[in-house]
C-alpha cells in the first residue's frame, strides 16, 4: 500500500525558475512531513520539514506547503540552481517507526 | 565527523548465501533503522531499534534479522539470500524515535 505518492518521476526546469515538487498521502493520522534530497551514490539528506499544525515552512530558497484537507504537500525551490539537480523524496508519518516515503522525483535544473 | 557508516558499499551474492550488512553511527543516537529502496518505490522500513538490546520489525522484515548489542552498531543479516532481496539498503539513525534521521550512503546488494 503506497500511502505516500509522488506522481511525477521526473521534472526539468530552467536555472532561475521555480521548481515545484508534489506529494500526496492517504493516511490522515500522519502529522509530520519531510523532504529529503538524494545525490547519486549517497544517502538521502534532510532538506525541510513541516508539522501538521502549520501550512507553510520556509528555509532560504526552499518552502514546503501543506494542505491537510487535500492530503497534499509540495516543495517549492526558488530560484532553482543546477546544484539542486537530485532526487527528492517526500516522507510522511507520526514517528520514524511508521514513516512512509514516496518513490522520488528526479529534478534536473538546466543552466 | 563520520555520521552513519555502512559497509560494504557493493556486494554480489549467490542465492542461499548469508551475509551481514554493517552499520555504525558515532552520534550517540538511540534510534537506528534499516530501509531498502527498490526501483519505483519509496524507502521501506525493514527493522528498527529504539536502543541497545531493543529491536522491532518494520514494514518488510521477512528474510532479515537484526541485533543491537551496542548503541553504535546495528547490523542487518540476510539469512538465506533470495533474488527478491536485490536492492539498495540504507541505514539511518536519529537521536530519538521522533528525531530527524541521518542516512548512510547505502549498500548496493545484488543476488544472483
Indicate the radius of gyration of chain B in whole angstroms: 13 Å
Helix/sheet category of chain B: mainly beta
Report how far apart the termini of chain B are: 36 Å
The helix fraction of chain A, in percent, is under 10%
User: What is the ordering of alpha helices and beta strands of chain A?
Assistant: EEEEEEEEEEE
Helix share bin of chain B: under 10%
What percentage of amino acids of chain A are in beta strands?
Answer: over 45%
Query: Which structural category do the helix and sheet elements of chain A fall into?
Result: mainly beta
End-to-end Cα distance of chain A? 38 Å
Total helical elements of chain A:
0
Number of helical stretches of at least 4 residues of chain B: 0
What is the beta-strand fraction of chain B?
A: over 45%
Along the chain, the helix and strand elements of chain B come as EEEEEEEEEEE
Give a short account of the largest sheet of chain B. Answer: 7 strands, mixed
Which chains make the largest contact? A-B, 23 and 26 residues
From the spread of the alpha carbons, the general shape of chain B counts as globular
What is Rg of chain A? 13 Å
Structure characteristics:
heterodimer; A: 111 residues; mainly beta; six-stranded mixed sheet; five-stranded antiparallel sheet; globular; B: 112 residues; seven-stranded mixed sheet; four-stranded antiparallel sheet; 11 strands; 0% helix; 49% strand
Written description of the protein model:
The complex is a heterodimer of chains A (111) and B (112). By secondary structure, chain A is mainly β. Helix content of chain A is 0%, strand content 54%. Chain A has no helices and eleven strands. Chain A is globular. Chain A starts with a strand and ends with a strand. By secondary structure, chain B is an all-beta fold. In chain B, strands 2, 4, 5, 6, 9, 10 and 11 form a seven-stranded mixed beta sheet that branches. Chain B is globular and about 35 Å long. The termini of chain B are far apart. The mean pLDDT of chain B is 95. At the A-B interface, strand 4, strand 5 and strand 10 of A face strand 4, strand 5, strand 9 and strand 10 of B.
Amino acid at each position: 500500500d503506497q500511502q505516500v505518492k509522488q506522481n511525477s518521476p521526473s521534472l526539468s526546469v530552467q536555472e532561475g525558475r521555480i521548481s515545484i515538487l508534489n506529494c500526496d498521502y492517504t493516511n490522515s493520522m500522519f502529522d509530520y512531513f519531510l523532504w529529503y534530497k538524494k545525490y547519486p551514490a549517497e544517502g538521502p539528506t534532510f532538506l525541510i520539514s513541516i508539522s501538521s499544525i502549520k501550512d507553510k515552512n520556509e528555509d532560504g530558497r526552499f518552502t514546503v506547503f501543506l494542505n491537510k484537507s487535500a492530503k497534499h504537500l509540495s516543495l517549492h525551490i526558488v530560484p532553482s540552481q543546477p546544484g539542486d539537480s537530485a532526487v527528492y523524496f517526500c516522507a510522511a508519518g507520526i514517528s520514524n517507526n511508521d514513516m512512509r516515503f514516496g518513490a522520488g522525483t528526479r529534478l534536473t535544473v538546466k543552466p | 565527523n563520520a555520521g552513519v557508516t555502512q559497509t560494504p558499499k557493493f556486494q554480489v551474492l549467490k542465492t542461499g548465501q548469508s551475509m551481514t550488512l554493517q552499520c555504525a553511527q558515532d552520534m550517540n543516537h538511540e534510534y537506528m533503522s534499516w530501509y531498502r529502496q527498490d526501483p519505483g518505490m519509496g524507502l521501506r522500513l525493514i527493522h528498527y531499534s529504539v536502543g541497545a538490546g531493543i529491536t522491532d520489525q518494520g514494514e518488510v522484515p521477512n528474510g532479515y534479522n537484526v541485533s543491537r548489542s551496542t548503541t553504535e552498531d546495528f547490523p542487518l543479516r540476510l539469512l538465506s539470500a533470495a533474488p527478491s532481496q536485490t536492492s539498495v539498503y540504507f541505514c539511518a539513525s536519529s537521536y530519538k524515535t521522533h528525531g530527524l534521521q541521518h542516512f548512510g550512503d547505502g549498500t548496493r546488494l545484488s543476488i544472483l
